[in-house]
Amino acid sequence: MVTHIITVLGYGANGDGVARLDDGRVVFVRSAARGDVLEVKLLEERSRSVKAEIVNILTPSPYRVESDCPYYPMCGGCDFRHITYEEELDAKLNRVNDALARIGKLSIRATELQCTGQTVGYRNKAVFHSDGSSQGFYQSRSHNIIPVKSCLLLKDDINNALKNPLPFGETMFLSGRNGLRLPIEEELDGLVFKISGFFQVNTSAALLLYRKAREYAALRKSDTLIDMYCGIGSLTLFAGQDAGEALGVEINRDAVKTAQENAGRNGMAHIDFLCADADEFDIEAYNPDCIIVDPPRRGLSSTVISNILAHSPKRIVYISCDPATLARDLRKLIPYALKDICVVDMFPRTANVECCCLLEK
Q1: What is the pTM for the complete model shown?
Q2: Domain of 333?
Q3: 169 domain-assigned
Q4: CA–centroid distance for 242 within its chain
């Protein structure tokens, strides 16, 4: 077996360790830590990059720790259980700043990273699979089931439910302030939401994100807010409580119905919701002072960006779950300048990261 000796320099977007071979190719290694000196074997070779796996850890990184999960890294749900949490946060901040510089060509850097400090028991949602004899998570990059009795990321009531046999196929668990059910309820700073569609899987971290978005929006009673890709309207209501008028825009009709119910139950008659495709929504008709966008991972379409620029609101608050598409879109949103950016650790022990940005002219 041919092996190579590498020194890990940092982390890729999916949490893999990054190093270079002697021939200059970038090598990605699962479960590697910055500073590791490793003996690796090559798995998938391309002209400019290689995937490899660890054969021996010759010199362990000072940031390396023993994993506290018996299923790691087989199940694929976590990416960073082999390093300290401080190193994980540093890796996430570096990932965002690398995207801002390399893709966005921006000079501003993120320095604020907010986290709850809770790295276990935070997930309010999980999907399990059963083949009749085993139940658990799919193994990383496959449909092989890894039998799991409990998961460190999940809330206790979900783990307790795993003590019982699951039906064949896929089972989703949702946990809210009213227990395990579909839909659930959650409370954020006194506002109560029914959750029947997409909602952040980490309620405590979602509150940090929503507070930052509300701060950036800086709305007054004379202002109008548009919240695009609003889902069930939780952020529309949270930030829009300061506005004179607010409108949430969402393509999913069921989510819009839930959002309207949430506005009613929280007594916010000045906030409405519209079922519409973001690409076809007429921003000009509402003349907003502030637009909040929280698009899917693929980011904003060129049509949405053009429509925003054509209307030219005072402020844009951009929430993103992908630093690469965020940086790409920020570069396109000239003449707006990125005034501030906050990184929120919504998904501890995974490589995923959330950003909240303030753009002004």
Answers
A1: 0.94
A2: 88-118+187-360
A3: no
A4: 26
